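lol so apparently i was supposed to do this last week
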Amino acid sequence: MDAKDEIKMRLPIDQLVSQYCQLKRKGKSFVALCPFHNDSKPSLLVSPDKGIAYCFACQSGGDVFSFVQKIEGIDFPAALKLLAEKVGIVLPKEGSREHKPSVSKDEKQRLRECLEAAQKYFAARLDSTPIAKEYVLKRGVTTALQNTFGIGYAPDSFSETYEYLLKEGFSRAEIVAAGLGVQKDLDEQRIYDRFRHRIQFPITDAQGVIIGFGGRTMGESDAKYVNSPESILYNKSSVLFGLFQARDAIRKTHRVVLVEGYFDAVAAHKAGIENVVAVSGTALTEEHVKIIKRYADEVVLCLDQDNAGQLAAGRAFDLLSKAQLRILSVTLPAKDPDELVQRDPELFRTILSSQAVPYVDSVIARLKSLPDRTQPSGKQRIAETLFPLLASLPSSVELRAYLDKAAAEFGVVASEFAQDFRVFANALSVPRVTRVKTALKEAPFSTAELSIGLALLYPVCRPLLTELIPFTESELELVRTGVAAAPADTDALAVILPLPIDPLLRERLQVLCLYCEENFPSWSESLALREARKICMAANRELVVSRQISLISELREARSKGRADEEARLLTQVQQLLKLTQMAAGR
Ligand SMILES: [Zn+2]
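anyway here it is w/ zinc ion bound
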């Protein structure tokens, strides 16, 4: 038995999930409020039989590994490690015979150790360098906060950090790969310290493991920030500074406060606001949004109060609202959170806890103060600023409410304002109506998969699978033939588990079984047969249509390029497909 199976055996899914959610018994399974979306009824199904916890409302979950990956925001190796520790089994050493030897894992581990050593070094240097220590204390960063965030100081030297790390046993190549040393070019042997005379903020993953550094100058020079370069550990578009320190507070409040700089995040902690992260040195990306969505339903934009900050907020709104997050905004009587906290932490706390308003309202309020808002130039500005925001609102009810509100605030006739907006929205390439429709239509499983699911749940339907047109995906095809041939007295799990398929597909099948059990429960055999036949026919039709589409486009391509042989071959295929269509329709 490998470690993965052993963990699954020792840690029942309900036991794991109960550490995060309150379970209620429902038959032989459990239900809970889903931790992955803003759930009002218990949508998370937990099936100890199948070893699966899954929410069909937001389509999240899976086996113990998938569940813990999603809820902790970690990757598979980290989940394996975490669960192994939970159940008390020792994982085989990386690189030993039981594991595939993986050079890159060892390499990653070495780089982590190198960054770890650098962090300790920087922290010690901060304590022993008066001008740096005084600087951070003057900015209100107490020793306790320095420890919480692991803040340090990179000495004003081209080689001290490098030489220290060499002495600690790291190689030149490792120091360069970790982003701490810079080799100017290949011919030159010398290595320079990347971070010099800067306050060092360790950048960690969600588990607190250091993956890079952000170095900030003391004062306001041009290159205010120097960040680690992208590496096998550090990908700047998917890292949020402070997430590790903020994680628990975010989970409790379901809310993330988004700030710009490292000092802003630290300052917010100082004021007692702990659910705060910073996107430093880069604009907010879709990757960031995905991470935020794992933990929160609501984002408070608390960015710099200048024009650049307003632009960043607009961009953030666009990305965040696509992910169906609620977006709020605060206005600060200071240039940024850091400045306000230094002056009046109590006021900062009050603003964050009671003065956050929906972002669109804050924009309307700002536009209302335009002196020329009744002139053509002002109206133009209002439309340019507001319409793109309104166009990205996910709900049409909300849209209508805001159109009315804005019209009233700006003293415009509501119907005219709405008309202007429609003209703007039509000019956008993606019509919003279709976007919503496709989202609604998205079923968690294809008809082909559903036919397999029904056959797993109701053995009487298994022979029907032989009437399906063979799948082109080889693994799914293995499943189809496997399930079709399975004896009627084997239950779904006993059929799925021995199939020689990718573990991810196996997990998907387990979720599929759970889905079918929930949605098509306690059918009589005849009802099951009737429904399965319908689903199989639909699956065949869909398959034929999708192949027709791809064949026809290939045929067109061959014809336009004058490739006669290929054209003839494709024509034969089209004819075969037509026969299949007739067969599919004939049943
Ligand atoms: Zn959910």
